[in-house]
Amino acid sequence: MLAPALEMEPVEPQSLKKLSFKSLKRALDLFSPVHGQIAPPDPESKKMRISYKLNFEYGGGSGSEDQVPKRKESGAAQNQGQQAAGASNALALPGPEGSKIPPMEKSQNALTVGPSLRPQGLNDVGLHGKGTAIISASGSSDRNLSTSAIMERLPSRWPRPVWHPPWKNYRVISGHLGWVRSIAFDPSNQWFCTGSADRTIKIWDLASGRLKLTLTGHIEQIRGLAVSSKHTYMFSAGDDKQVKCWDLEQNKVIRSYHGHLSGVYCLALHPTIDILLTGGRDSVCRVWDIRSKMQIFALSGHDNTVCSVFARPTDPQVVTGSHDTTIKFWDLRHGKTMTTLTNHKKSVRAMAQHPKENCFASASADNIKKFQLPRGEFLHNMLSQQKTIINTMAVNEEGVMATGGDNGSLWFWDWKSGHNFQQAHTIVQPGSLESEAGIYALSYDLTGSRLVSCEADKTIKMWKEDELATPETHPLNFKPPKDIRRF
């Protein structure tokens, strides 16, 4: 005989969805009994948050009594903060050490919020049966306020530019019959010379702007000029492939340096050795001995026209910029390349070395860049773009850099920060075309207080600082950059 079967309780069929909801409700009832309610606004907590934010951001002033409280008071305040945190079961964040706190709020030096009541839909597991979290009590605006109170705001590390007075044009000199392409100053700072497309070199008095002398000898436009500080010599180079040495005592050519295969675009003198550097369309920078007229080196390595060059007393002694977008440092002992800089994307038509600092700037149609010497480390770009072909640039000892563009724009920059503090535009002289507004050469005099520009309207313009300008009349409008691009 078989035993009678046990009677089983009937099981009510339930769907999977209903079971999951039941499990979810049990979990919420277990860990958050008030899961369906929203935390009520707590004005005391809001007051503490605001006081913490004020103390954190503006409480860095001097005040020995508030910044260094006694041990007993600080211990009592800490115990009271712990008791308050335990009573309300809230998270307490102490303020930074040394922050200035009002006397009435020393015992409440903590970021405390009320009981942790999550909105519905946030299923977070808490501690001791009641969750502990930072919850904004009065909406999203307080949530942002509490976040900004915790985060430390770092000030911009970009150097603030020095205020410079604006520059103004005070004299226009006319006398050339063609584009004025080059300029050089006398070491005594009494006169300067300019070379033009009319194949002449003119010497002008710096103080009055009067013409003193006209020299003829080239058969093409003159693109480079340099005056020696050791001898009474002046050097000129032009599109006729010729490099000439003028004796200023006799006012005639005493030497010519033959070797370039095409036009000569730039010229520079070595500061300590009797050496002349010339670069041109044959993509070669040639090194000449001034006395013997011999070519010492032909610095070959560029793929296009060498249009800018300057010399230094120490390595690298020769720096050249080219239309192939590169800048090369040369070893003058062996005539070979030391370093090649490829930061630019367009032709490097102008370079300028700072008279005091050990760095230089190079100008291209894409940007103006600063490099550290002697290794050529890239420092930064200028903070604005002139957006034109930059033919020339010059820097004085006060840190004012001027750049001249092909469209007649003359921009002034602060050297340290790269801030463009003035944008001037030359006025084309009557009788010239509007397209003849280009600036081809810039140079400061030896004091750095006067700037001379050579332009395509066949004039020479002289600039100086505005004596009546003050930081109030011409304020500095500077915004630190958020990001600096390498290229």
UniProtKB/TrEMBL annotation:
SMART domains for this protein: WD40 (SM00320)
Stretch list, region Disordered = 59-102
| Comp. bias intervals (Low complexity) | 75-96
One Pfam family assigned to this protein is WD40
InterPro entries under this entry?
Answer: Prp46/PLRG1-like (IPR045241), WD40/YVTN_repeat-like_dom_sf (IPR015943), WD40_PAC1 (IPR020472), WD40_repeat_CS (IPR019775), WD40_repeat_dom_sf (IPR036322), WD40_rpt (IPR001680)
Q: Does the keyword Signal apply?
A: no
Family per record: Belongs to the WD repeat PRL1/PRL2 family.
The protein depicted here goes by the name Protein pleiotropic regulatory locus 1
